Amino acid sequence: MPTIDEELSQMEKDIRQLKIEYDQYFGGGRKRPPAEIEWRIDLLIKRYGERGGDMKHGQRFRFSNLTQTYAKYKEIFRKKVQQKEEGKIQRHFGAAAKAIEAERAEKQKQEEASAVTAGGAFRITCSEPENEADKIDKLYRAFLQAKEKAGESTGKLTPEGFNEFVRKKTKDLRTQKQCREVEYVIEIANGQVKLKALVKN
């Protein structure tokens, strides 16, 4: 049975795929809207809406972000479907989607920073960092922001160096410990930023 993190990752992929398939539908490349993906996302939202207590703070935050993005997309899709049926289709969907993504990224950036500095911990689980650029980017941003908040130097930190560190660390731990995933945790303890790598089976 998939874990909550795995299901949230699948939901994130499904939302991206939904946007692609709706683009194809509105562009004439698909005959029908992608109802099956919508059904799958709706099912997950319903399930986790009812069992929110099972989720950790970081998972609830991620679920909330995904749900909001999906709701915004659905509203755009609904209007576009209506326009298509009425013969008034406009091709501005890409720009609207980009605006939503930019707004979501900015909000997430702010909330990630406040999550770490509020004494909580920022967590991300990796299994194949070379295919998880989004996750590594979020981890890097959260690490950078935590260090800045704690007054630590960030001069030597680079995205490339951090990516390489996470890739190597994940690979080494998976080999040594025979685990499937590695959870990276950023927390501030005694005014110092700590980045931990925890083995997950």
Walkthrough of the structure:
This protein is mainly alpha-helical and 201 residues long. It has 2 domains: 4-116; 119-200, no CATH class. Helix content is 64%, strand content 11%. It contains 6 helices and 3 strands. Strand 2 and strand 3 (192-200) form a beta hairpin.
Taking the alpha carbons of the first and last residues, their distance comes to 13 Å
Number of domains: 2
Counting DSSP E segments of at least 2 residues, the number of strands comes to: 3
Give the quaternary arrangement of the chains: single chain
List the helices and strands and how they pair.
Blueprint: H1 4-26, H2 35-50, H3 57-85, H4 93-117, E1 122-126, H5 133-149, H6 159-177, E2 181-189, E3 192-200
Antiparallel strand pairs: 1-2, 2-3
Pick out its properties.
201 residues; three-stranded antiparallel β-sheet; 6 helices; single chain; 11% strand; 2 domains; mainly alpha
Task: Put the structure in a nutshell.
With 201 residues, the chain is mainly alpha-helical. Helices cover 64% and strands 11% of the residues.
